[in-house]
Amino acid sequence: MKRLITALLVTALVGCTSAPVLDSDSNSFAERLVAYQSAACCVAIQEMTVEPLKESSLVAFSMEENVEKVSLPTGPSLYKAIKLPDEKVTYYFKLRSLVLEDEQTKQKAAVLPVVAVLNDDFSLSRLSTLQNLSYDHWTVWHPYDHFNIYIKVDRQANPTERYVLIFTPAALLDKEMSYSRSPSTWNLTVPSGGALTTYPVQSRGIKFDLRALPTGSLTIEHITNPLNKPYDYVIRF
């Protein structure tokens, strides 16, 4: 019975957090590059398609939603742009980009998103870099490998910040690169016999080759639950 309950619990957890399925998920890496190349070029940043912040807390997208690329200093880019409401409050987001794998070659690939926070006049306020991305290996709670980045927009402290723009620099597209993370040790503190005992936990290093895609499988989560909001030190830019 215990085994059955455990199995059902794991199944429920995986089902609730499985990766989003998009129409483009079956596209090959070559087809994704063709989608980028065939998209019309280009609209000015002031004329790009901007979506209002949706009530839904989690939105899945592929970067193929807009028919035209936007002209940026880094080159023509597919993009997603979100306009924040008028309220001068703090908005938190978590952006995830799933790591895809070619069934035949087993090559890994992903959209490597860069986030630009723009002002009311579309001028740049802040820009993330690839160093701001974190990599998460699959777990029971997140059963897929992905890159992620937390985004914080404090419109009370910075009232002119109004837009969140997600894109990938054109120079990265279809490039081969290598991702690596060194082993690290962190401490796990647990209650033990009425006291707290600390155990060192070794995190394994990770290294794999990666191809940067123009389109992929991404989600952006608007975090509204105070219990789920990240600490400032977690936000990378």
Overview in brief:
The chain has 237 residues and is mostly beta strands. It has one domain (2-179, 206-234).
Features:
19 strands; 5-stranded antiparallel β-sheet; mainly beta; 2 helices; 237 residues; disordered N terminus
Structure in words:
This protein is mainly beta and 237 residues long. It has one domain (2-179, 206-234). Helices cover 11% and strands 43% of the residues. It is built from two helices and 19 strands. The strands form five sheets. A five-stranded mixed sheet has the order 2-6-14-10-11, with no helix packed on it. Strands 3-19-7-13-12 form a five-stranded antiparallel sheet, with no helix packed on it. Strands 8-9-18-15 form a four-stranded mixed sheet, with no helix packed on it. Strand 16 (184-192) and strand 17 (195-203) form a beta hairpin. The radius of gyration is 20 Å and the shape is globular. 22% of the residues are buried. Residues 1-18 have low confidence and may be disordered.
